[in-house]
Amino acid sequence: MMDKTKQINRHVYWNPYFGGFLLGLLIIFTFYITGRGLGASGAVKSSVVTVVNKVSPEHSENNAYYKKFLNGESSPMNNWLVFEALGVIMGAFLSGALTGRIKLKTQHSPKISANRRLFFALIGGLLFGFGAQIARGCTSGAALSGISVMATAGFISMICIFGTGYLVAYFFRKNWI
Amino acid sequence: MGPLIPNELIPAEWNFVLAILIGMAFGYIMEASGFSSSRKLVGVFYGYDFAVLKVFFTATIVALIGLHYMDYLNWIDLTELYIQPTYLWAAIVGGFIMGIGFLAGGFCPGTSLCAVGIGKIDGIVFTLGLFIGILIFSESFTWLQPLYEEYNLGHITLDKTLGISSYLIIFVFTIIAILAFYLSDKIRNRVKKVFY
To answer: What is the ipTM of this complex?
Structure first.
């Protein structure tokens, strides 16, 4: 439906300042209630740790990184960020359902094939997941929540993520414009 | 005084209920702002859509000013909030890799979950990629451990790092954001429109 009506496309989303304002209030609320910020990659990490621990508990016990997130009886999925991430999917579904945006499809530039888009999505996800572990958080947890409480790491992450984005944008231009 | 759960003003059992509700609000706001669309997200790097920049800067300014004002009013204690530690080189290298991932994949972890929520296959594949990337990191942790654990500056905030007042930082950050908003509209008018 998006390809069909280009004019609608421009008006369908919220004003970014309105969305940003609400997101700012949500960050304040989250810190006020829980003392921590929002996150996203942490939930995927918990899933990775859980799966590896299910497949081979011996292996995860011998790895210093998995071990950080395994504490005896309690499952790594029993984690604030996992519930929050499930909420994110539900909230996005709700917004999409109310505006008729729910559709199983691959979004890509008409200049590239769907397979090419999916290949780059996989590589991009892989790099993002890898980088987020090194930096101890992604755009949500490190940059957005970090800057909200003035953490130095948050500013560094933001500048490096977006700065690198601008540096490499030229090489990926065929995929997007 | 906040934060409420760490100070036991709300029972800890509410933690997970609130996690889902907060997550839902987060997902709703991102999806409604267009963050479930990779082509809208990367627009910020090619100058045809600056929604990411506007939402990001507006949200951080509202949160920065709001939290500091609440601290001033004694409604919340900023020192009790979680400040992520700054591992200098880990943040730089990690940010660099994430930047490439952003341009290749068109999402970041939060926005890819949004895309999963409305059925985008590219979002699902990106999330699968996240899973693999985290697995590779964990499996090569011994090798990456020095980068991950060295150059620890502690749970430091920018006012301490730079040695200037936090209010001044917020003021300068706000000015930079307003300039960025102004410039982004100028740039967008000059760049060829991209429809998606």
So the answer is: 0.96
